[in-house]
Specification:
246 residues, mainly alpha, 53% helix
């Protein structure tokens, strides 16, 4: 009797047990360490360093160079505050580098263009020189600027897709370092990561100063409609006690 009862209990319990497909439960639920490592490797994204820089979201500006003493990392407006995407930060840095380069050229152009008469005998304040250019020269300049901008966009930016415009519009390529267009005719680009970071910081600092300088010269000429050298001469006379209007 006891044997019969025990047999019925075992049979009922087996009805609720999972069926086996020829493998033990331990082999189904467990995986080897090698398989676990392979799965982990496939799921983790591989971040490739660009010019020695690897994006690090724990650092300001994702670890991009450009901060120097005594201010260090200086971002009072919060362009690169935590939470901004990597693409946004790279896009801001791209804009900063390119505007800095244009401002450095403009700073030299303000001084040299007012000091030396150009090929079209254009002189006077630099603010007024652009509209004095002959129409063909102005058109050629416009085409050259447009070609340079299109080339830059083709190198660093993802082609816009109207079907996925939210993902492709204003998006930089993952393997593109902001400002690195591959244009280095003098071979000044360092090969090592530390040297490149130092060179990038120097370029950024000079570009930032040039942006302030070019804006200052433009504002000054808008106020008094004189060249930079005329303004310097004017205030030299003022501070020397000489009437500048004589």
């Amino acid at each position: 009797m006891k044997l019969a009862v025990l047999s019925s209990i075992v049979g009922a319990a087996c009805a609720f047990a999972p069926s086996s497909s020829g493998k033990t439960g331990s082999s189904v639920l467990r995986s080897s360490p090698q398989e676990t490592e392979e799965e982990t490797e496939t799921t983790m994204p591989v971040v490739v360093a660009i010019n020695g820089w690897t994006p690090d979201d724990t650092k300001p500006c994702y670890g991009l160079p450009g901060s120097v003493a005594p201010t260090g990392y200086f971002d009072p407006i919060g362009f690169c505050q935590p939470g901004n995407t990597l693409n946004d930060v790279k896009r801001y840095r791209e804009a900063e580098v390119q505007h800095g380069r244009v401002a450095m050229l403009a700073s030299v152009g303000y001084l040299s263009g007012e000091l030396i008469s150009g090929p079209f005998n254009i002189n006077g304040p630099a603010n007024d020189q652009l509209q004095k250019m002959p129409a063909p020269a102005f058109a050629l300049l416009t085409v050259a600027i447009a070609a340079a901008e299109l080339k830059r966009a083709n190198i660093g930016w993802v082609e816009p897709d109207l079907g996925q415009w939210t993902k492709t519009l204003f998006t930089l390529r993952e393997n593109y370092y902001p400002g690195d267009l591959g244009f280095d005719p003098l071979g000044l680009k360092p090969k090592d990561a530390k040297g490149f970071a130092n060179m990038q910081t120097k370029e950024l600092q000079n570009g930032r100063l040039a942006m302030l300088g070019a804006a200052g010269m433009c504002a000054q000429e808008l106020v008094n409609h004189k060249t930079i050298f005329e303004t310097i001469d004017f205030y030299q006379k003022v501070y020397s006690g000489v009437d500048p209007y004589l």
